[in-house]
Automatic annotation (TrEMBL), chains A, B:
Pfam families named in the record: Pyridox_ox_2 (PF12900)
An example Gene Ontology molecular-function term: oxidoreductase activity
Keywords: Oxidoreductase
PANTHER family: 5-NITROIMIDAZOLE ANTIBIOTICS RESISTANCE PROTEIN, NIMA-FAMILY-RELATED PROTEIN-RELATED (PTHR34071), FLAVIN-NUCLEOTIDE-BINDING PROTEIN (PTHR34071:SF2)
Its EC number(s): 1.-.-.-
Membrane-spanning residues: none
Protein's UniProt name: Pyridoxamine 5'-phosphate oxidase family protein
Region (Disordered): 1-21
Compositionally biased region (Low complexity): 1-16
Length: 226, 226
């Protein structure tokens, strides 16, 4: 990573909730590491389209600020438009429901990163293999090394794009309900309902006789096995 | 709701993974009911911006197909552009990590709805109050009725927009790892790690002496208290 300090440009500077803006690049990288799904925004057919997608991050990748990798079918409708424009990738984790004494101050605790930039199609074979391994490892750390290498046919069917992490901003809300002076005169309960993602026990496919790998058990436990 | 059948237009018809397309409008409404966060896509400054946001749905709302409500500060940067263009609202829930014998078939189980349309600014006072109550109740069913009504000042600070649910599509992936004929010749574990969102025990604010309301306890339990 180029710097510990996030340097949002005017277009990644939040217009609202500036007090929720996070300046520490380590927190951005931690969020990108925690989250499993990104939402990709592209303009296609004259209107925005937002699609959920897996992703991976290489802080030492060749793009300015590090590389955020997305992959998809070479036939995906979003791919060609995405390569001809700036795109936006947003990653959000929900951390809690915030219940105040007024509806106005009801809120959610969350962490959200917004990355804007011109994507680069990854054509170098080694980088493509590495990016696809990173996408697998993002979901299940250590998994890629246990799998056979991607075949030529698989690689031919899969497009990989890289987005520079240079132009990124992060917002975060933590804590309990915001309190207006007048709220103390109100009655009623106020508080926080923390939420988080958990995994339940891995389910083995019928055709598999191998035991559940240690790294899968560990990941499920890390995600807070319910 | 106008129909049980989803009728995607060309721009909401997925170009890939058509086998994952969901045709039943009840499943769309169930996903919109389950999810807590939407991702709003607008074009602002010549590029797409994707922002996480709370939302609510009124299946019997005045818009074609029912109404999806978003709210925000009247000073939010996305608001003015959003009212002059078609926007996209995407709602995604992650249900599992799918681990195959090949990297290529690694995937995630998810449900995702994509709604595209021209938003309408909600100006009618009654509808605005109702929409804001629905946003609170979406997060915490039954909560709005226990709160004081929004003040004029709060209403003046809050914009509400409605998106018709007419042009919506939904995709879903369920089940275990996809199996290519050749995968049976491979070795190694394959399976599913189910994931879901859970709540932990509500945390009461220091200044509150009331007990945690029954509806908050019920909601936390419904979300699968960990």
């Amino acid at each position: 990573m180029t710097t510990q300090q996030l340097s949002p440009t005017p277009r990644t500077t939040p217009t609202r909730g500036r007090n929720r803006q996070v300046e520490d690049r380590r927190q951005l990288m931690a969020l990108l590491s925690d989250a499993l799904v990104a939402h990709l925004g592209v303009v296609a057919g004259g209107h925005p389209v937002v699609l959920p997608t897996a992703f991976a991050v290489d802080a030492a990748g060749p793009d300015d600020g590090g590389s955020l990798y997305l992959h998809g079918s070479v036939a995906a409708g979003w791919l060609a438009p995405a390569l001809e424009q700036d795109i936006c990738v947003t990653v959000t984790e929900l951390d809690g429901l915030v219940l105040a004494r007024t509806g106005f101050h009801h809120s959610m605790n969350y962490r959200s990163a917004v990355v804007i930039g011109r994507p680069r199609q990854v054509t170098d074979l080694e980088e493509r293999r590495r990016a696809l391994d990173l996408v697998v490892d993002h979901m299940m750390p250590g998994r890629a090394a246990t799998l056979p290498p991607a075949t030529r046919k698989e690689l031919a069917a899969t497009a990989v794009i890289a987005l520079p992490l240079a132009e990124a901003s992060m917002k975060q809300r933590t804590g309990g309900a915001s309190l207006e002076p007048g709220d103390l005169d109100l009655t009623g309960w106020a508080g926080l309902v923390p939420v988080r993602r958990v995994a339940s026990a891995p389910v083995t496919e019928d055709y598999v006789s191998d035991p559940v790998p240690e790294l899968v058990l560990r990941r499920a436990a890390e995600l807070g096995q319910a």
